[in-house]
Predict the structure of Gnk2-homologous domain-containing protein.
Amino acid sequence: MSNIVYLLFLITLFLSSMTTPSTSATDSFIFGGCSQPKYTPGSAYETAVNSLLTSLVNSAAFTNYNNFTVPGTPASDTVYGLFQCRGDLDNDQCSRCVARAVSQVGTLCYASCGGALQLEGCFVKYDNATFLGVEDKTVVTKKCGPSVGLTSDALTRRDAVLAYLQTPDGTYKTFRSSGSGDFQGVAQCTGDLSPTECQDCVSDAIQRLRTDCGPTSWGEIYLAKCYARYSEGGSHSRGSNDDSSHNDDEIEKTLAILIGLIAGVALIIVFLSFLSKVCEKHKGGK
């Protein structure tokens, strides 16, 4: 009986690990890119990159933004880097997100002198060209919902969300979130920008959202140093472009069925084992 109980424990443990998503919502991939120049594996520059990326991960356990510079000789081997977590994440969530982003950018941009990667919850970037403190409004990625149009009331709520993101209570904020009815929105710039540069970047992103996405139920735009996004009813902007949420539902249903079948089989095994012991006792008593 003890062996059966142990087997059931192992099965439960295994299935529990399967039903736990390997990535959380903050780990969803948004974009990534690498610089054209390459470094020689095993070189001093590779050591500097690894040192910088390690510093990013370590620092993320204590703050949601930081930047580092690892000097090199010659000066062209100096590496600059930063990470930025979404403003509503706690230190633990930020740390996990940055660790995952660093791991992914290290693979994606292997031997590249520079790389950048944006996940749902955080952003990391490194390069041998100075970019810290430099405003950059280059559009990196933009997505809009279907052009089905919004009612006048819905459009008013959407515009109210975007207006607050653009000027939150008339005060400067690196991270802004807003809601109006069933519309939600967030905007953020990287912490290396000055208040004026941050405001300029976020305002530009929001203007592009208004112009490019029009009256849609969701939209998002990521510039090189800031982003802005909104959605109606909590709809996930990338949900219309992939089947990830559908696949996750199917996986969960399949696993639920498997768990039910295995649990049923386990109960039958336990019951048969119990009957066997009863029969043995009965025979021994005769």
Observations:
- Residues 1-23, 236-259 have pLDDT under 50 and may be disordered.
